[in-house]
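User: Show me a protein chain along with its predicted structure.
Assistant: Here is one chain, sequence first, then structure tokens.
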Amino acid sequence: MRSVRARAALGATVVVALALTAAGLAVLLVLRANLTDQAGLQAEVVAREVAGQLALDVPYDRLEMRDEEDHPVQVTDEDGRVVAVSKDLRAISGTGTDRVAPDPSPAAGGTADGDDDGDDDDNGTDDDDSGSGTPGRGEVDSDEPHFGNGTATVDGDTADYRFASVRATTSTGVTLTVHAGAPLAAEQEAVGTVRGAMLIGLPALLLVVAGVTWLVTRRALRPVEGIRREMAAITASEDLSRRVPEPGSRDEIARLARTTNETLTALEASVERQRRFVADASHELRSPIASLRTQLEVGAAHPELLDVPGAVADTVRLQGLAADLLLLARLDAGERPGRTVLDLGALVREEVSQRTGDRIAVTVSVPDSGPDAGRHEVAGSRGQLARVLGNLLDNAERHARSAVTVSVGAAEGGGVAVAVTDDGAGVPPEERERIFERFVRLDDARARDDGGAGLGLAIARDVAARHGGRLTVDGAGEGGARFVLWLPGTG
């Protein structure tokens, strides 16, 4: 099934069917057990009544048995011989013997009828402790009776019964067992009625559950269908400014719609940045390429007018721009930096020592004593971190008047901080975040660069973020700009 509604309806129906089936079986079992226990209790009452008469030496043919049609009775002795049965009992099973005719043996009949005078005299003598000559009495077994199910045919009708077996001992010491039955027709009828009602009601109830689940699921998933249609329309039109409808509810679907719109917003911004990046890159590449082509065409026509230093400068500028664009592309693709452990103070010294052509000498401050002394180790890509330092120094060289300072030390709260300070015009507070955007060059004095494309600070911040750090700018004490690179330490 490809429909969520169909799967939900089917799943709910199966769960309800299993639950109702289990509950129905439990109800049937409990009902049958209760009704069977009631029938057993009725049978026990009848059996104990007959056993009580036997304990009083009532003759077999004078036993009073109530409701003989509903409660068949069979009395057997220790040898399993039938000594008495209820009226109209024609067949029986489940009591240990299926005979329903009393055994005419003298032993069985004599004891019950009191014909054995010798035994009666002896028993009368032994049992009459008071010497008054009162006949002795037997007893009924007080233990729990034995129960079992069977059938009996009474007056031509055969039915199922619950039998209770109770033992009684006569005054002469003869042990008899009374098997009395109670009909199970009520139990069978009740169980059959409940089972029939369940077989009829269960399918109807399952149809109702399936229908309600289908309707509820359809209503609940209606906003999802709206989201799907709008996403299909956005995909077809490529218009990322459109948004999916957000339902007014506060459920998972509403959160899905909001998340989808947030994703579309981020995707739109990303695509817009990509378009602007491509446009700016094309514009930045056009100038050095056009200048280089012009110089080469002039040199081809008039070799004596070829500006070789200018062509080399344009080539170097073009090469640097291509390298910056390639690094940005790798950063945007999610390239993870290496995890080489390096000393940031040593890296700063090495980078500054290689800048022999700077118009302003760079002052390096790396403490060799005091609380900030020691190795300032960070983990990352040596090449990318060197690029960050180079970009910050290039930016400071372009805008400084007379001084550029680099300091390395432990930052408050942990980590290592590198501060690059110049004494130039500084960065206005409202522009301090904008200068980290790609291809952004301010219109004030800091825009008077000598070939910068506006990518250096953007690259520096991206690299810092990839290393788990950050790059910020604020004002310097001398009125210039102070760029601070913070990176987490390895300690």
